[in-house]
Design brief:
The chain is α+β, with helices and mostly antiparallel strands and 293 residues long. 31% of the residues lie in helices and 26% in strands. The chain has 2 domains: 127 residues, 3-Layer(aba) Sandwich (Aminopeptidase), CATH 3.40.630; 156 residues, Aminopeptidase (3-Layer(aba) Sandwich).
Amino acid sequence: MLIRHLPHKSIDKKQWDQIISSASNGLIYAMSWYLDIVAPKWEALVSDDYSFIFPITVKRKYNLPYIVQPPLSQQLGIFSNKEVPVDVIRLFIQKLPSYSYELNLNEHNHLPGLIGEPNYILDMGKTYKEISNNYSKNTVRNIDKAKKINLKIIDNINCESFISFYEKTSKTYKAIDCECLEKLIMAGLKHKEIKLISVYNSSDEMIAALCYTEFNRRITYLVPVSNETGKQAFAMFYLVDQIIQREAAKDKILDFEGSKIEGIARFYKGFGAKNHPYYILKKLRPSFLVGRI
């Protein structure tokens, strides 16, 4: 198999997006508009017939290339409409244009020996009753508490409101600057692949919000934000339950993204989500190259 390395200017983005959209393992993180924001000047490895493609998120320091996982992009790796065999994965890794990399390969890029990282996914193909019957007792209890205090869901809040709430509240994703996040949201809204939803209390105050993506049949829980009032009101339990009610019995999945933090993982698993790990690929990273895009 011939594998070509394409610099950013040589990538046909229309063709690229068509391939990602039709790939059996296609993810929104690999769409060209998404990569343009989180990893400007990204490059690519492609097979000669374009049946396998691999976005390369390259940075340079002292004119040396190194590859790292970009922010807000849990998994990348090789995308295809076909099964991705081990020998193809190894061929692409050999062609990476750097001696230093740390990447997250998607769950369909399983290479023996790689470390698996947790990622929790809920199948939405069942009825709401069937899905909620698998909620943990703690999840049911917290949703019931939230219902008693008259929370309300507001759809399609604007980007400015979300970013303002995020800046005031969030202690996560500190490697992400709000300018990057705002650009991503604005582009996602334009492409109709990012949505913003919020929870308000009876005093008409926003207490929780979620930036999530909808791409193909995958809903991705991208950036959740909850202030102290929201946490005490179990607002995020209420919000996720509302999304599940809306999307149940559809051919979709809810991708919570993963976490090793026990409390966060318990939250995801409490809705019945199952672990579908992705894989970490690493090679020597000298200390002077350590950093994120």
